[in-house]
Design brief:
The protein is 16% helix and 41% strand. It is α+β, with helices and mostly antiparallel strands. The strands form 6 sheets. It has a 5-stranded antiparallel β-sheet with strand order 3-2-1-4-5. A 5-stranded antiparallel β-sheet has the order 8-7-6-9-10. Strands 13-12-11-14-15 form a 5-stranded antiparallel β-sheet. One of its GO terms (molecular function) is mRNA binding. Binds mRNA; thus facilitating recognition of the initiation point. It is needed to translate mRNA with a short Shine-Dalgarno (SD) purine-rich sequence.
């Protein structure tokens, strides 16, 4: 049989269930209107209305059946309604939880004469002295939440300190950190002497420039960027001065310690060209490991221009020749990776072979032609054309592609002689057969010499010599009579060809032709007079 309730218990229950002003009660949302919400109180009789201005969140963020804490602000108004405030309930609950010496999130509200007005947990007003804010008077009001320590609470008067919070966190950090630990951070600033890394909101560490990389030549600004996330090793903790020194390179082993194990002599490795020198080029094969390719280990044949072969930044394969760990030097070979192309040259090239090459260098007496990687040949100016070439630079340009005939291979000395003219039949063979002394030919003046001009004969691609004395019957000089490109007609005085492998020669005369035609005209006039 249930125990009957005593009068005292009934009074207590009635008081508990009674809706009184100032009472804090939990309730459940059962209706949402345009200007507020209705809440059914739990453990009390009646409902309350909470207007939008008394809510701690925007109206649209509330849902039916959601539980909230409210404080009764008015009961049985003229219309018999009860009103409540969520803000006041949460404010009181939050205020009761705030204790001196504890840390809370704050939001900056206003700048005051000697500090700042802030809100703890977004609700409770507090004062932050300027001297404890870690801010300069010129700084903008911080946005978002910051953490602060409550250093004084007297009723509703609360004083907070960001400085005390920061010092506490710094001390905690130093207690947690030990030398040899690996920690995470974000690069905040970069100077020539090192990089500052943010470890938390109030503590930075320094990576000295010498601790960034095993590569001593690298620039810290090329290795790190502001905002970059890094893992670093703690190499020194100064708890008294609150300083932390960090290292990136010590997360990796000194590459010179195991260089001979990782890169045995004779092995072929991949690297990047870092510098072009007058006597070779350097290659980075690993962080902190750089070797030299001497010019003697670049070219198999004739020494060329290094910049025509590799450029800074190129990835190349090189062979390890020698390692000097004590002096941190590595000798490398570029040419030995591909092997000596002259060793089995007869398998690919032979005398009489016509190939395409690239003009590598133009000289006064000829040109160096690149036939293949490591294989070059010499093209003498006399082998450039069946005609005479006065200035080779007017015919060839560097990097120009040309067809050449291999006329001589000297494997032992790694030399090759080439010819352009022998890639086509000697035009003098045809000219010497078809043109005889006394014949009349036509051609174009292509250049002047000291005592004459060179004429390219039409239809034969051979050059004839026109002496200045045979150029005209008038008294003017050759240059006054003719210009480059002028078409002329002349009589062949001499033509000869020693053999089909040499250049022929031809001498022509304009004056002989003019005199002959004058005689013909004179005879014609005499004949006409005799007939009359």
């Amino acid at each position: 049989m249930m125990e009957e309730k005593t009068f005292e218990k009934l009074l207590n229950e009635q008081e508990i269930n009674e809706v009184k002003k100032g009472k804090i009660i939990e309730g459940k949302v059962f209706e949402i209107n345009s200007d507020g919400i209705w809440v059914a109180l739990e453990g009390a009789t009646g409902d309350v209305f909470v207007s939008q201005v008394e809510l701690i969140k925007p109206l649209q963020e509330y849902q039916v059946d959601q539980k909230i804490l409210v404080e009764i602000t008015k009961t049985n108004d003229a219309e018999g309604l009860n009103f409540a405030s969520e803000k006041r309930a949460v404010w009181n609950e939050t205020m009761n939880k705030i204790n001196e010496g504890e840390n809370y999130p704050i939001i900056f509200k206003n700048r005051l004469k000697k500090g700042y007005s802030v809100l703890i947990e977004g609700l409770i007003g507090a004062f932050l002295p300027g001297s404890l804010s870690l801010l300069s008077p010129k700084d903008d009001l911080p946005q978002g939440e910051k953490m602060a320590k409550v250093i004084s609470k007297n009723g509703k008067n609360i004083v907070v300190s960001i400085k005390d919070y920061a010092e506490e966190k710094i001390s905690q950090t130093f207690n947690e950190y030990e030398e040899g630990m690996v920690i995470d951070g974000v690069v905040e600033d970069i100077k020539n002497f090192g990089a500052f890394v943010r470890l938390n909101d109030h503590l930075n560490g320094l990576i000295p420039a010498s601790e960034v990389s095993w590569d001593e030549k690298i620039s810290i600004k090329d290795y790190l960027k502001v905002g970059q996330k890094v893992k670093a090793l703690i190499i020194k903790l100064d708890r008294e001065k609150k300083r932390i020194s960090l290292s990136l390179k010590r997360l990796k082993e000194n590459p010179w310690k195991t260089v001979d194990e990782k890169y045995p002599i004779g092995s072929i490795v991949q690297g990047t060209v870092t510098k072009i020198l007058p006597f070779g080029f350097t290659v980075k094969i690993d962080e902190g490991l750089e070797g030299l390719v001497h010019e003697t280990e670049i070219f198999w044949g004739r020494k060329g221009r290094i910049s025509d072969l590799v450029n800074v930044g190129d990835d190349v394969q090189v062979k390890i020749l020698n390692i000097d760990k004590e002096n941190k030097k590595i000798n490398l070979s570029y040419k030995q990776v591909s092997g000596d192309p002259w060793e089995n040259i007869e398998e690919k090239y032979y005398e009489g072979n016509i190939v395409t090459g690239t003009v590598e260098k133009v000289l006064d007496n000829g040109a160096i032609i690149k036939i293949d990687e490591g294989i070059t040949g010499f093209l003498h100016v006399s082998e450039l054309s069946w005609d005479f070439v006065d200035d080779i630079s007017t015919v060839l340009n560097e990097k120009q592609k040309i067809k050449v005939k291999i006329i001589k291979i000297d494997k032992d000395n790694k030399r090759m002689r080439l010819s352009v003219r022998e890639t086509k039949e000697n035009p003098w063979k045809k000219a010497s057969k078809e043109i005889k002394p006394g014949d009349t030919v036509k051609g174009k003046i292509i250049r002047f010499l000291d005592k004459g001009a060179i004429v390219l004969i039409d239809g034969y691609e051979v050059e004839a010599y026109l002496p200045a004395s045979k150029a005209s019957t008038n008294s003017k000089s050759l240059e006054e009579t003719y210009s480059i490109g002028d078409q002329i007609e002349a009589k062949v005085l001499e033509i000869g060809l020693e053999n089909e492998f040499k250049r022929g020669n031809m001498i022509i005369s304009v004056t002989h032709l003019e005199e002959e035609r004058e005689k013909e005209e004179a005879l014609q006039v005499i004949n006409e007079m005799n007939e009359e």
